[in-house]
Amino acid sequence: MRTRIIGTGSCLPEMVVTNDDLSKIMDTSDEWISSRTGIRERRLVKEETTAAMSVTAAERAMKNAGVSPQEIDLIIVGTITGDYVTPSTACEVQAAIGADKAVAFDVNAACSGFMFALHIADAYLKTGIYRTALILGAETLSKIMDWNDRSTCVLFGDGAGAAVVRSDETGLLAYDQGSDGTRGKVLTCQNRKNNNPFVKNPIAFSYTQMDGQEVYKFAVTTVPASIRKVVEAAGLTIEDIDYFALHQANIRIIQSVAKRLKAPEEKFPTSLDHCGNISAASVPILLDEINRKGLLKPGMKIVLSGFGGGLTWGSAVLEW
Ligand code: ACO
């Protein structure tokens, strides 16, 4: 049996912030942002929370799959921006949708979070422990941005994406994932400061920091290698793949991966022009967008690939 995506859903916050909106509050321009990244606008939360967007995305995915909350055995949310340290976003989703039989927990693998959640769900489903899982990527990255640092804050957005997966005759054909903690410092966001009363000089809290060029080098070498590996493991060639749904970090990364794989850019759908980079939520939101456009037909071969902080990466080949 294989793990098959049987429904997708997503949720974006209402507020649209364009590059021009940003240029009114900081020294940047639509030209700088769009030419270097492909991002034109992003959605940022006002009142919405990571959990609330996750719940909406989950409900849409369950409706799309024709699955009720009582059928969900497992909920995994990939996120680095849960509303609470505890309870997990997954437990909040479980409570809100009434999936009372489900086991629920979050995974922290930054922009690879949805891919890691998919692989964990696959392991549970393959062993027969669970039959149906709800997996999500959800972020409110605007909370962890330094809004005085134009080199990072313009890149990111908020949102949530979800998929329902179930054991079936076809689905996930092959998977590759990896981590390299030795390079973790190229993309960081520190947790809350140590404020115990015995510490004289607590370490200051810092927001997201990134060495953009190092992240770029990591992405354009690791992602094509991971995709090649997983396509080969599935017994397929790059030409056999109908769509490559990649983490939406930067259009230049996507173009470079396409070039290195010798695959046409038309096979790389994007959402980053209107979403920006939403870390773990990028892949499931993009997947939901192309699913709802009717682009995915049974039998098609789809590559999903996430990569980012940790450093971490994960790629999968699915038969739709
Ligand atoms: N608006 C205007 N100017 C800016 C901005 C901005 N928003 N941000 C930086 N600049 C300026 C810098 O101050 C610098 O000016 P200087 O030359 O006078 O010092 C100049 O632009 C170049 O800055 P760099 O940081 O060197 O810009 P770079 O050309 O590397 O582009 C970018 C930055 C687009 C982030 C690039 O490094 C990149 O594509 N990185 C890939 C990583 C990525 O996309 N990460 C996303 C998150 S990680 C993930 O999801 C995996």
Report on the structure:
- The structure is a single chain.
- Helix content is 33%, strand content 25%.
- The model has no long low-confidence stretch (mean pLDDT 96).
- The radius of gyration is 19 Å and the shape is globular.
- The strands form 4 sheets. The protein has a 5-stranded mixed beta sheet with strand order 1-7-6-4-5, sandwiched between helices. It has a 4-stranded mixed beta sheet with strand order 8-13-12-11, sandwiched between helices. It has a two-stranded antiparallel sheet with strand order 2-3.
- The relative contact order is 0.20.
- By secondary structure, it is an alpha/beta fold.
- It has 10 helices and 13 strands.
- Helix 3 packs across helix 4 and helix 7 packs parallel to helix 8.
- It binds acetyl coenzyme *A.
